[in-house]
Structures are given as structure tokens and as C-alpha cells.
Amino acid sequence: MxxxxxxxxxxxxxxxxxxxxxxxxxxxxxxxxxxxRDGARRFTTARVADVAGISVxxxxxxxxxxEAILFRLQADEWEQTGGLIGGILADASxxxxxxxxxxxxxxxxxxxxxxxxxxxxxxxxxxxxDAPETAEHRKAVTQMALQFMKEALPNASNKQRAxxxxxxxxxxxxxxxxxxxxxxxxxxxDALAAxxxxxxxAYLERVG
Amino acid sequence: MxxxxxxxxxxxxxxxxxxxxxxxxxxxxxxxxxxxRDGARRFTTARVADVAGISVxxxxxxxxxxEAILFRLQADEWEQTGGLIGGILADASxxxxxxxxxxxxxxxxxxxxxxxxxxxxxxxxxxxxDAPETAEHRKAVTQMALQFMKEALPNASNKQRAxxxxxxxxxxxxxxxxxxxxxxxxxxxDALAAxxxxxxxAYLERVG
Amino acid sequence: MxxxxxxxxxxxxxxxxxxxxxxxxxxxxxxxxxxxRDGARRFTTARVADVAGISVxxxxxxxxxxEAILFRLQADEWEQTGGLIGGILADASxxxxxxxxxxxxxxxxxxxxxxxxxxxxxxxxxxxxDAPETAEHRKAVTQMALQFMKEALPNASNKQRAxxxxxxxxxxxxxxxxxxxxxxxxxxxDALAAxxxxxxxAYLERVG
Amino acid sequence: MxxxxxxxxxxxxxxxxxxxxxxxxxxxxxxxxxxxRDGARRFTTARVADVAGISVxxxxxxxxxxEAILFRLQADEWEQTGGLIGGILADASxxxxxxxxxxxxxxxxxxxxxxxxxxxxxxxxxxxxDAPETAEHRKAVTQMALQFMKEALPNASNKQRAxxxxxxxxxxxxxxxxxxxxxxxxxxxDALAAxxxxxxxAYLERVG
DNA sequence: GATGAATGAGCATTCATTCAT
DNA sequence: GATGAATGAATGCTCATTCAT
Lengths: 208, 208, 208, 208
Prior knowledge:
The first copy, chain A, is an all-alpha fold. The first copy, chain A, is built from 10 helices and no strands. The structure holds a DNA duplex.
């Protein structure tokens, strides 16, 4: 019998009670540890359960399969970073392009935290890449970028803005991820963040 | 038998004889097919040997382990793309920034060819990421970019040029890979390539 | 990921070489032993491999899954019994109804051989019940019975003969299986076989 | 924890109170549904409890283990069918052989009701086959058949009657079960029931 | 009495690698 | 040199049953 190429990762049960929430948190924390310590290829439910100090059975009570754990980690990641960047890009106290500069810097720094885990999570992408939740995340991010472009490119057409938003998010996330994965020192990361921000600004100014 | 965290992937033997070269080629071709057809997770030595029409034993005569095949695939990839981009960036018949624009476009297009295989190869990155050969590749690319910067940023310091070269290659490869993986239509890819090129040019002009 | 309700049981490789044939035989023999000793619910590939003195991996080289082993056992069973009964029912040296009496007796006795294994194999029916090969067997048996009816019911219509054949095979196999499963002493089995034969004869005479 | 080869299935407590009776009924009903819906292999206590709308813990308050539920289902089945057939076979308003014909027809029809559940229950036979209660059932049925034989075979010896009763019940239940499991259309089932009845009558007349 | 979270042995299956032929 | 059978550790996941609350 064959497995589906992409398993269902919706959660098995909603942790309504405190104990459940705690357990889910413990599992996720253990998962991060296993990911960082052993890498994506050695990320097994048994190991996660072991590190979490629970039985495999319990783990499966809260996550329907291995993929769900990984996806959950990534989703939390997205939510956190998304909120951070979204907040900065919408911060009216700064000029749009300055917000962009700050956002890129913040994003690069956030990407470089827990690098081992992030690399491993990225390696695990095949497990959740095609999940509908992943598509939803993209959509939310796009919306955010579009909103920003209204201010950054006030005279551009909707189409132009959409394109610029696409480029901006793609470039920022792609470069950020790559830089993070390369394990560079903090100073270098900051410099590359500044340069990336500058690059994006230069582009937007030229377009705008 | 325990596996090393990062296996040795240097080749078991140099294929000096014609027969060997042929076999290695057949294995690599089969590997590409398996990768594209079955994905990174279903990429097994047995399947590669089967598709190549040889025995597993023979496969292991030319590659010390599975990782080595993947690495070789990626290395060939790099060599090919590196040559392409290197040639363009060194082409004296064009203005430096125009070369950059052309190079980005060529790179994005080349990345989008055989997308399935590339995605799979990328999924397989954990297998070869930490190999010394990978570092070597980075070095060669850097050299190439540095050479280009001599012309693009004639008045900059070595340090500035090195930084610009780093950013340029990082951005180009990161965005290119991401765009390719997203499976966008050719027109979109070209547009993003143009924009990325423009973005890099805008940056270099500002810096220069 | 869910499993198919009924797995594919076609064989993984044809044992062409002597060694293979031997190994397949060893596996089947071990399977019979495990089935008889531990019952259908404890019938595991690991146990079979262990009893066969080989590794699980080797077992899976010859059978694609657990079900395939069980099916093969049953198929061999069918072939053997089918040949036996077919031969008797076609034996021109006896009057048709006498052949029937002999066939029933032979069938009951054969059913009672290796009773433990048969009961276990029967318990495992859910694993192979819906396989196409099972349907094929039914067809072959029906053909055989139909041929017999030409002689036993020379004046009946095709439809009548088909019905009588159906009843005969159904009754014979159902009662035989039940009697075997009950683990009765040989004398009782013989007596019930005789009675069943008589019953079928009485019916055919009445119909004919 | 090790499992016994054949678990004890006698009930953990007698449901004397109304609430208990209700719960037991709910569990059994749920069990039937799970059996019919998911099959014997997917029949789990968790699923039964879920469908019954109670907790696993509660389920285990009324049944010592999974087998006990299945056995109880089968026992109820037997009681019901036994009563039906017993009533018919004892019905003085019909000639003995006519009662037999009617009984076979009724039995076959009853067997064909809820076929999915019955097949599943049969698949589950290994769970309860060796229970003492199963033997008791056989005894009761035999008694009933013996009683009938007093009328059907008035001139036969006790031994002859016992044998005929045995054959009759064995044949009837074996053929009925088989026919039911084959999922034939109602008309075919009735025809086979009639033929089986006729066959038994022919036998009894010849013996009598 | 009811609950349902927790347990963990058990299972089917895969696959990189070796080595006798 | 080529073959491919053999290995067996490793993996994801299930489920009967218990027991603290």
C-alpha cells in the first residue's frame, strides 16, 4: 500500500484544556530541539516523543502525523515573522522606504535566530510544501505587501504594485533564507540586510 | 551499520576508461529521471540502478554512496550554470550592467528548465550541503563575480567590490531558485528576472 | 495515510532460479508453521522470516506484502484440491454419482489435513478475499462442476445444470470447511462426508 | 502487557440496573455499526466507544475486552436465529419436512440481512471461536434439531437421529453462511435455500 | 461511576550497503 | 568487473488496556 505524496496535516484535536496546550507546546519544543540537533532526516516521531518525555502514542494524540508537527512549526514561524514584518511595513511613523529598510533588517535577523532549526525545517519543506495552509500563508503575505505598496508606490497602477510586491517579498524571503542558511556572522547578516533593503529601495524609487 | 552524519562523497574511482565514463553518465541520467519522476524522498539507489539498467553493485562501483550521486548532479549543474553566467559577465562586448541584466535573465531561465529535477535536487540538499566540494563551488563563483565587479565598480575598494559581488550572487541565486521552485509561467519568470536585474543595477549604480 | 482495503498481492518476482524457488518454498513452509502455531492474528512477516531462517528484507524480495504470502498459500491449496476433485469428477470409470460420493469424501479428508493451518488461513480470508485471483479460482471450479453435470444430469437444461453445479460446489465446500474447522475425529468426518455425498446424490436423482 | 491467546470474554458485570442495560445496548449497537462500516480489521474499542457516544473507560466497565463485545454480538445473533428456526421446526401445524423447508428459507434470509456486519463478525470469529459460550450454543442448537428429528425420523434410532440432526444443522448453517457471504441477489438466495431444503428432505426421506 | 489521556509493544515495510558468486 | 540476493536497523503509526482525576 502506498502513502499519499502529501499527507493531511490538519490537527487531530484542538487542545482546549490546559494540559493539552502544555503537551502540544512540549512536543513542539522537543521537535525544535530534535530538528536542530539531529537534522531533518533524523527527525522521527520516536525521537520527538522521547525528547518531549512522552510516549509516541501521546504524540499521535495531538498530531495526526509527523508532517503535522513540522507544518505546525513552520506555521508558527510564519505567523510570528509575518506579524513582525507586517507591523513594521504598516508603521506610519516612518517613511515607506525606511520601513522597508527596517523590515528587511528585522526579517534577516529573525531568520538567523535558531538557524539549525530553520535549516532543518526548510529541509522538511517537501513534507508540507503542498499543504493548503501554506498557500494561505502566501496569500496573507501578499496582501500585506500590497498594502505597503499603496504607500510606497502611490502613483503606480495596481498591476505595477502587485508586481513590485511580489518581487519585494520574493527577494526578501529568498535572500534572507539563503543568508541565514549560510550561517554567516551577525555583522555580515546585518550588512547584507542593509544592502538588500537599499537594493529594494533603489528599485522602488526607480519604478515609482 | 551506523551512518555518518555527513557522508564522504568524493568519488570512489576516477572513470578514466571509456566504459566507466559511459556508465557514470548512464547513472547520472537515470538519477535525473528518478529525481524528476519520484522526487527526492523516493530517490533510492535501487531505483537509479534499475532505470540505468545496471545492478546496484555496479552503481556502487562508481559512486561510494547515494549522496555522491546527488552531489555530482548538483556539481554538474553548477559547472554548467557557472560557465554560462561567467561567460556572460565577462563578455566585453556589452556594458557591465547590461551583462548583468542578461546574466540574470539567462540564469533564471536555466533554473526553470527541468524544474521537477531541480526542486528534487534542492530537497536533497541535506545530503551534499556540507561537502567540501560545495564550498569550492562557492569560491569559484565568488572569483567570477569579483572579476565582474572590477569593471562594474571601477572606483570601489576591494572590500566594497567583494561585498557587492557577494550580494549580487546571493541575491541572484536565491531569487532565481525561489522563482524556479514556485513553478511560475515563463513570462512571469522573465519579468522577475528583468526586475531582479534592474534592482541589482540600481544598487550598483547607487554604490558605484 | 491510509492503506488500501485490499492490497495488491501479485508476486514481486518470479523465482526462476533454483535458489529463489527454494527460498519461496522455505517462506511458504515457514508461513504454514507460523499460521498453525500462532494463528492468523499472530501471523507477522517478522515471525515468518524468523521461522524461515531469513531476514525480513529477503522475505520482501519474494513477496510484496504479507497478504501475498497468505494468498499464495490459499492458491496452492486451491490448486491442489481443485486438481484432486476435478480428477475424481472426471473419472469415466465410475458412475457420475459414485464419483461425486468419492469426491466429497476426498475433499473432506483433504480439508481436514493441516487443520490448524487451514483455520488460520480461513481467518486470513479478509486479506485475499477480494483479490482477482480468488475470482478466477471460483470460475475454474464452476467450469469443472458444469462439466460433471453434463454427465450427472444428461437431460437437464443448461440453466438447471448450472444451478445444480453451483449448489453442489457451494454445499460441498461450505460443509467441508465447517466440518474441518470443528476439528472432529476422522471417523466422524468420513461419516459426514458420506452423508453429504448421499444428500447431494439424492438431490441430483430427484432433479434429474 | 502480553495478551492471552484466547481472552476471557465472560462479562465483567451483570447489567442489572436499567442504565447499565441501556449502555450495553448502546455499545452493541455501536459495535454493529462499526463492524458494518469499517470491517473487522478496523473494529477498535475506541471507535466503538466513539460511535456509542461514551468513553473507552465506560466501555471497559461493561465488557472486559474487545472480544467480549464481538462474542456478545454473535451470541445475540445466535439466540435470535435459534429462536426463529426453533420455532419453525417445532411448528406442529406443518409436516416435519415442510417445516424444514420453511426453516432453511427463513435461515438463509436472516443470514443475508445485514450482510456486511455478518461478514465482519465472521472475520472476527478468531476472537470468540474458542469461548465456552460458543460450545453452549452448539449444544442448544443440537437439542433443538434432535427434537425435530423425533418427528422427522420417527422410526430411526437415537444414534441415527443424532447424526441426521448434526448433518442438518451443519449443512444448513454452513451453506447459509457461505451463500450470505457471497452477497448474492435475494432471488438466488431463495433458490439456493429451496434447493438446500429439498436436498435435506431428500436425504431424510431416503434415511427415514 | 465516568472519563479520556497515556502507554508502549507491536507491526508492515523500506532501503543503503555489502559480498559471495 | 558485474551481479543482485541478503541484511536488519530504522520508521511511521495503531490500538488494547489502564488508571489518575
